[in-house]
Specification:
The chain is of the alpha+beta class. The protein has three helices and eleven strands; from the N terminus they run E-H-E-E-E-E-E-E-E-E-E-E-H-H. The termini are far apart. The structure holds 2-oxoglutaric acid and fe (ii) ion. Its cofactor is L-ascorbate.
């Protein structure tokens, strides 16, 4: 089975009897951290996962296109070995409706993964991986999900707690209504003075 819909080279770890170990990793390590850092995307209620390894290189998958994960929180561990290239690029957190909207300059974040290091990010944080230029890059991914968050999301209309485009739109609406109130007050003042 392919590890995800985007990569060809890799393996699903749950198929190799690692499900219990990964459950423990999520419960003892990822959930407590996500509770603190990502409470707005169900970080404290993570209860399912999809774990896999990926392998990049000239004779493997070369790069990975811009995407969001089917997860609330993703753990990405660089297992090595020796490689150049393969940097991760992040471009802002988005809800489903805004997933294809423009990136703001402050959202540009590039990260060069090092063997033995791990990155924990929201699944809705748009990202991709640049081409691995030489060697082989091997990564462990754990997509962590929250069934409570997914159920609540069906009834939610405002995603400004995590989507930066929703936040921008909300601020713009507030700015416009303040401007409209100011104009109205100025008009009234003018009428009273006349
Ligand atoms: O290649 C990487 O490090 C990123 C992998 C990734 O984003 C994913 O599998 O969802
Ligand atoms: Fe991803």
């Amino acid at each position: 089975m392919r590890p995800n819909t985007m990569n060809k080279y890799g393996a699903v770890l749950d198929d190799f009897g690692m499900e219990t170990m990964l459950d423990k990793l999520m419960e003892d390590f990822i959930r407590p951290m996500s509770k603190v850092f990502f409470p707005e995307v169900g970080g404290s209620t993570l209860d399912a996962h999809h774990g896999f390894v990926l392998e990049y290189g000239m004779d493997r998958d070369v790069d990975l296109g811009f995407h969001v994960d089917d997860s609330e929180v993703t753990l990405n561990v660089c297992l090595g070995k020796q490689f150049s290239g393969g940097e991760l690029f992040f471009r802002g957190v988005r809800c489903e409706k805004h997933v294809n909207t423009e990136t703001q300059s402050e959202e540009v974040f590039d990260y060069a993964h090092l063997p033995g290091r791990a990155v924990l990010h929201r699944g809705r944080h748009r990202h991709g991986a640049r081409a691995t230029i030489s060697g082989n890059r091997i990564n462990l991914l754990l997509w962590c999900r929250s069934s409570v968050f997914r159920e609540l999301r069906k009834y939610q209309k405002d995603f400004s707690s995590y989507c930066t485009e929703c936040q921008r739109e909300k601020k713009e609406r507030q700015r416009q209504s303040v401007a409209a109130i100011k104009l109205e007050l100025l008009k009234r003042e003018g009428e009273t003075a006349a």
